[in-house]
């Protein structure tokens, strides 16, 4: 007995000692391969039912403890056969305690766990619940013969039995001498081709253990009304359809698969292999129907011998490995690649990426694979591609086709060894009837030609994905163009490049796939005579291939047929820097498509560029009138091969442009610098391509002035562009409908013209305007009148871009609360709102505050407040200070017991003060008696932020709810807008805090009244972003933050005196807190919890802002934050800077808005 077996016996003895007689050890016998322990278990107290195990008061069991216990599981059996026929009882005596021993057996539990499992098994068996309702039935067992073992794999579902036995044949595919597959069924009497096997599908269950003797099996079949003669006839009928030498079986089915308690059970199949001699006898026995008397006599005699043999013969049961869909749950169920099941996939490239992807697709269940690759397997490829030595010299496509056929013989595979450029891309039917095309060639030529073919073909497009990996197999890139998207993979590849170049946390992806400068060292496995490739192992490639294929399936499952997607990823083993994303995912919609029939070019205007054009048009209409023309510069890329021009970025009119109702003359100031910045930033993908301008209330066709302008541009000697794009937008003052005309001019267009007239075919499109979802959060910071003026400019930019309509929630602080509430709680046109804000800034709020303070009861109330509340507050403070000093002197009591002293606080609220005058002025001048819950513009959610001084917590007044986490939610939320705004704007250095009592609701049920002291929201969070960050469940994908702060502190200040030191210390702490908030925004963007954000910061440095006419920071950063009247010049400067920064930042970082 091994040490481990002794441990098992000791554990059983411990169980017996504490079981109070419920378990007894009868004997312990040491055997060669196991230790047998006989035990007795009390079953008298177990609940029993008639259909349960026939348990006696005590039952004896043999436990066989293996040599490798506890890693090998013990077995348990009975001394009797009373449990025969019950589920989970094998060989009449052996109890099956575990359905999945590998996961259910824990070696650490030892015999304690084993006996506990046996006890549970007996209790369930006693009440007939060994297969309880709702759980999968344990299938019956058929004990195998001594060998050789044969395997039968059912591939298709069984036909229905309809409450009576089914007789027929199973269609076989012979895979090897020891394996056949079932791929079909035919009823008795139907035609069937060789090879087949006899099949009987029962309508009633069989015993749990299939008989091992043929005579016992026939008895069970007779009990279901199936005679020996009928069995024999079924065998003879099937043999008649077979050729000589075909393997032969009887496939026997019984409804014992499925869920316990279900009325719809499926067939459990077993296969009886019939010896070739018996098969030959069955064939001879059919001679009993011969007209030859001698043969008839022989046939009857052989049949009699077979019937006698059936009384004594054993049943040679085979191994049945189920693969029927009705029985087997796929092991990849729920995984992304199951999207490909049943699809037809064209796979271009069968190399490092293509060959593993072909295997993944075959295993995922694709219906058809179309393989394209002209390459041949070379010895060096075996390092990382799934080929073997015997494949060397063969075409990759042919080898991969053979491999997937070995995995899935039923899959349809077509392959071609021609070049893709000469094959599908040189054919009318480039889709090859596939549901999706996956390109793994990483060939620029393939992508470029595909872009041209897809654009000019009349065949309905299908989704096309392109997959590629980096030069060291550390990064992968997937791009997908859905069937209704404007372009192909080259288009999406370009967009992915621009995104990677624009976002700092994706710079490592840009450096990998679009290095600048280009790599000079390339890897050639056979220098001088081989194409360059990447360096990486089979493990590297397989990880990237699997991850990209999974992501591709996820995107396709989202059913976004008119979008394009890109996915960057890195190897999971790489240690990335904290500011580098390990993956990034993008989705884009289509833009505006315009054709120029004269030149043959298709012009693709990105949605972001079109929004920018509309923004400039609206700004022009707002400032100069709807009849004045405007325009600007177009930046993008022109591809003469595919004849596509991409308009990616747009600017408005340069500073030296001339605008009028008669025409627009585009200036050039700052264009060269802007072009250099865009070309450098995007690594050459965005640069000058032409100009745009409007034709108010007119068709977008070139005028003679336009024609002369383009001629002048192209004839300029220092213009390196041989072609230039002119985009004209037709506007309509009566509607928001725009029309587009695009015209590509080249120098030769002007050589043969007369009188500056050119005849050309033109095309005009109506611009499509798709509604955008409301998913933006807007934060307006504090900063007094400076903030109001700055935010006015920000709102102008958002209005012109059509983004204000997308704002879902607005969070405001102090001065931002004033303009934010003015916008939200009004329904006037933006132009009227703008006038009201400017009027407010010109007049200021200080004078109305003074007026309300001096010429109303506010002054009297304030004096009484000081006399009563102020004096008592002073007395309470002096008394508290005196008590504390006295205790510190005498030190006679524990200070912990004197906390009551801290409760001596001002007993009366400050019911009136200068802030009350502010509240009254806001009510009279702006908000009247509006409540927070009143109707708001576009039903926008409003959050007005204040700071609660008692607890140092944020206090949020909101249109949905007003609350502070320390107190709860204000019941009914009957708070006036003026009061909330006054609390948010009560700058503590000038205005006293608002001291009020509110009725709060705690835990949605308990109501109580408490006192709050509210001051400027900027004390807690001057930007107001904490309440709309992603973890606050605001539902926002984007945040637009407008900060009227000063930015970096000036180094000209020398804090010498106490006041200056305290002031600068407060500013330093305040700025640090705000920096942390800004950093959280960056973290959200990097992690993907935010799709994007912009921070329009009045005090930001201007170094990286490429706007030639930008209002400098130095002109506005130090404007005071009070509420005094502001002159026209400062209003315009502050508002213009806010407008310029916001417009530029949106175009730069969130152009999709």
Describe the structure.
- With 1153 residues, this protein is an alpha/beta fold.
- The protein folds into five domains: 3-130, Roll (Ubiquitin Conjugating Enzyme); 151-318, no CATH class; 337-521 and 532-589, Rossmann fold, CATH 3.40.50; 597-767, 3-Layer(aba) Sandwich (Cytidine Deaminase, domain 2), CATH 3.40.140; 776-863 and 910-1139, Cytosolic phospholipase A2 catalytic domain (3-Layer(aba) Sandwich).
- Helices cover 32% and strands 22% of the residues.
- It is built from 26 helices and 41 strands.
- The strands form six sheets. Strands 32, 33, 34, 35, 36, 37, 38, 39, 40 and 41 form a ten-stranded mixed sheet that branches. An eight-stranded mixed sheet has the order 16-15-14-17-18-19-20-21, sandwiched between helices. Strands 22-23-25-24-28-29-30-31 form an eight-stranded mixed sheet.
- Helix 22 packs across helix 23 (977-984).
- It is flat, with a radius of gyration of 42 Å.
Per DSSP, what share of the residues sits in E-state strands of 2 or more residues? 15-25%
CATH architecture of the largest domain: 3-Layer(aba) Sandwich
Task: Give the helix proportion (percent range).
Answer: 25-40%
Task: Estimate nothing, just give the exact number of structural domains.
Answer: 5
State the CATH superfamily name of the largest domain: Cytosolic phospholipase A2 catalytic domain
Strand and helix layout:
Blueprint: H1 3-18, E1 23-30, E2 34-42, E3 58-66, E4 75-78, E5 89-90, E6 94-95, H2 101-104, H3 110-126, E7 151-154, E8 166-176, E9 179-187, E10 196-201, H4 214-223, H5 228-241, E11 249-257, E12 266-273, H6 276-285, H7 293-312, E13 319-320, E14 344-348, H8 354-364, E15 368-372, H9 396-407, E16 412-416, E17 436-439, H10 444-456, E18 464-469, E19 475-481, H11 489-502, H12 507-513, H13 538-557, E20 564-570, E21 583-588, E22 592-596, E23 601-605, H14 607-624, E24 631-639, E25 644-651, E26 658-659, E27 664-665, H15 671-681, E28 687-696, H16 704-715, E29 723-731, E30 739-746, E31 764-766, E32 776-780, H17 784-800, E33 807-813, H18 815-824, H19 830-843, H20 846-854, H21 857-890, H22 914-927, E34 941-948, E35 953-958, E36 963-964, E37 968-970, H23 977-984, E38 994-1002, E39 1006-1016, H24 1018-1021, E40 1038-1043, H25 1058-1087, E41 1092-1097, H26 1128-1149
Parallel strand pairs: 7-9, 7-13, 10-11, 14-15, 14-17, 15-16, 17-18, 23-25, 28-29, 32-33, 32-40, 33-34, 40-41
Antiparallel strand pairs: 1-2, 2-3, 3-4, 4-6, 5-6, 8-9, 8-10, 11-12, 18-19, 19-20, 20-21, 22-23, 24-25, 24-28, 26-27, 29-30, 30-31, 34-35, 34-39, 36-37, 37-38, 38-39
């Amino acid at each position: 007995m091994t040490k481990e077996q002794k441990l098992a016996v000791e554990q059983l003895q411990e169980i017996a000692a504490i079981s109070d007689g419920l378990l007894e050890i009868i004997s312990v016998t040491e055997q060669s391969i196991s230790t047998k322990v006989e035990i007795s278990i009390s079953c008298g107290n177990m609940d029993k039912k008639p259909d349960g195990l026939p348990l006696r008061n005590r039952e004896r069991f043999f436990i066989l403890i293996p040599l490798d216990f506890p890693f090998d599981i013990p077995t348990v059996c009975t001394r009797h056969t009373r449990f025969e026929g019950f589920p989970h009882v094998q060989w009449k005596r052996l109890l099956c305690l575990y359905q999945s021993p590998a996961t259910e057996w824990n070696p650490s539990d030892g015999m304690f766990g084993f006996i506990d499992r046996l006890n549970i098994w007996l209790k369930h068996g006693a009440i007939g619940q060994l297969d309880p309702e709702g759980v999968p039935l344990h299938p019956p067992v058929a004990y195998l013969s001594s060998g050789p073992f044969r395997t039968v794999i059912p591939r298709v579902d069984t036909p229905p039995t309809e409450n009576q036995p089914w007789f027929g044949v199973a269609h076989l595919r012979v895979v090897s001498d020891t394996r056949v597959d079932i791929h079909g069924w035919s009823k008795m009497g139907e035609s069937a081709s060789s090879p087949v096997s006899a099949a009987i599908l029962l309508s009633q269950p069989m015993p749990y253990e299939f008989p091992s003797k043929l005579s016992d099996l026939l008895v069970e079949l007779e009990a279901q009304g199936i005679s020996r003669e009928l069995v024999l006839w079924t065998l003879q009928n099937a043999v008649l359809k077979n050729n000589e030498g075909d393997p032969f079986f009887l496939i026997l089915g019984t409804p014992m698969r499925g869920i316990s308690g279900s009325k719809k059970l499926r067939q459990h199949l077993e296969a009886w292999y019939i010896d070739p001699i018996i098969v030959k006898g069955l064939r001879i026995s059919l001679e009993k129907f011969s007209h030859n008397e001698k043969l008839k006599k022989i046939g009857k005699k052989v049949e009699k011998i077979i019937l006698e043999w059936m009384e004594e013969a054993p049943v040679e049961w085979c191994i049945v490995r189920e693969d029927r869909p009705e029985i087997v749950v796929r092991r990849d169920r729920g995984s992304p690649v199951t999207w490909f099941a049943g699809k037809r996939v064209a796979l271009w490239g069968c190399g490092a990426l293509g060959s593993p992807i072909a295997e993944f697709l075959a295993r995922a269940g694709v219906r058809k694979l179309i393989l394209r690759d002209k390459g041949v397997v070379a010895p060096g490829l075996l390092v990382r591609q799934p080929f073997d030595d015997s494949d060397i010299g063969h075409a990759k496509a042919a080898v991969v086709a053979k491999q997937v056929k070995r995995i899935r013989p039923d899959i349809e595979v077509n392959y071609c060894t021609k070049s893709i450029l000469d094959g599908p891309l040189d054919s009318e039917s480039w889709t090859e009837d596939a549901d999706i095309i996956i390109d793994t060639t990483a060939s620029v030529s393939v992508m470029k030609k595909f872009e041209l073919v897809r654009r000019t073909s009349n065949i309905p497009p299908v989704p096309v994905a392109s997959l590629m990996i980096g030069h060291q197999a550390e990064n992968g890139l997937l791009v997908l163009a859905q069937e209704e998207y404007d372009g192909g993979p080259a288009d999406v590849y370009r967009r992915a490049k621009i995104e990677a170049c624009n976002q700092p946390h994706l710079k490592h992806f840009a450096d990998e796939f679009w290095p600048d400068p280009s790599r000079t060292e390339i890897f050639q496995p056979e220098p001088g005579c081989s194409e360059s490739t990447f360096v990486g192992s089979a493990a590297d490639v397989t990880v990237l291939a699997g991850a990209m294929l999974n992501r591709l399936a996820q995107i396709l499952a989202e059913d976004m047929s008119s979008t394009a997607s890109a996915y960057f990823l890195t190897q999971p083993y790489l240690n990335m820097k904290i500011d580098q994303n390990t993956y990034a995912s993008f989705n884009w919609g289509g833009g505006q498509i315009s054709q120029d029939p004269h030149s043959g070019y298709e012009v693709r205007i990105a949605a972001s560029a079109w929004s920018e054009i509309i923004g400039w048009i609206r700004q022009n209409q707002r400032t100069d009138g709807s009849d004045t023309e405007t325009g600007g510069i177009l930046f993008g890329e022109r591809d003469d091969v595919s004849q596509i021009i991409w308009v990616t970025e747009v600017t408005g009119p340069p500073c030296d442009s001339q605008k009028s109702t008669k025409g627009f003359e585009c200036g050039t100031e700052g264009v060269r610098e802007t072009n250099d910045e865009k070309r450098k930033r995007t690594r050459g993908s965005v640069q000058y391509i032409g100009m745009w301008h409007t034709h108010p209330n007119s068709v977008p066709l070139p005028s003679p002035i336009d024609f002369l302008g383009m001629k002048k541009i192209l004839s300029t000697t220092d213009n390196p562009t041989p072609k230039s794009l002119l985009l004209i937008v037709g506007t309509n003052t009566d509607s928001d409908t725009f029309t587009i005309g695009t015209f590509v001019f080249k120098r030769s267009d002007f050589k043969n013209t007369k009188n500056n007239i050119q005849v050309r075919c033109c095309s005009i499109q109506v611009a499509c305007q798709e509604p955008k979802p409301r998913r933006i959060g807007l934060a307006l910071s504090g900063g007094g009148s400076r903030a109001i003026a700055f935010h006015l400019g920000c709102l102008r930019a958002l209005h012109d871009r059509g983004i204000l309509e997308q704002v879902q929630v607005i969070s405001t602080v102090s001065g931002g609360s004033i303009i934010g509430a003015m916008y939200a709680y009004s329904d006037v046109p933006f132009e009227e709102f703008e006038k009201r804000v400017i009027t407010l800034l010109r007049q200021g709020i200080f004078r109305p505050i003074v007026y309300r303070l001096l010429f109303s009861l506010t002054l009297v109330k304030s004096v009484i407040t000081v006399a009563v509340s102020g004096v008592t507050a002073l007395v309470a403070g002096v008394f508290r200070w005196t008590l504390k000093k006295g205790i510190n002197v005498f030190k006679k009591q524990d200070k912990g017991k004197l906390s009551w002293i801290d409760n001596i606080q001002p007993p009366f609220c400050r019911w009136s003060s200068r802030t009350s005058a502010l509240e009254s002025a806001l009510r009279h001048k702006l908000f009247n008696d509006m409540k927070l819950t009143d109707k708001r513009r576009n039903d926008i959610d409003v959050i007005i932020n204040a700071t609660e001084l008692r607890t140092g917590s944020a206090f949020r007044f909101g249109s949905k709810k007003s609350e502070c986490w320390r107190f709860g939610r204000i019941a009914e939320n009957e708070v006036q807008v003026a009061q909330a705004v006054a609390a948010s704007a009560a700058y503590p250095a000038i205005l006293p805090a608002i001291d009020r009592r509110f009725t709060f609701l705690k835990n949605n049920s308990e109501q109580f009244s408490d006192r709050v002291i509210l001051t400027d929201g900027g004390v807690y969070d001057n930007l107001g972003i904490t309440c709309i960050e992603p973890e606050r469940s605001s539902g926002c994908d984007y945040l637009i933050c407008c900060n009227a702060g000063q930015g970096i502190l000036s180094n000209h200040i020398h804090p010498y005196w106490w006041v200056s030191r305290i002031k600068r210390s407060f500013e330093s702490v305040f700025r640090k807190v705000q920096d942390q908030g800004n950093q959280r925004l960056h973290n959200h963007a990097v992690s993907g919890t935010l799709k994007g954000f912009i921070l329009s910061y009045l005090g930001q440095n201007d170094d990286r802002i490429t706007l030639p006419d930008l209002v400098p920071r130095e002109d506005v950063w130090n404007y005071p934050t009070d509420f005094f009247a502001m002159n026209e010049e400062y209003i315009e400067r502050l508002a213009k800077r806010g407008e310029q920064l916001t417009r530029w930042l949106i175009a730069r970082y969130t152009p999709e808005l």
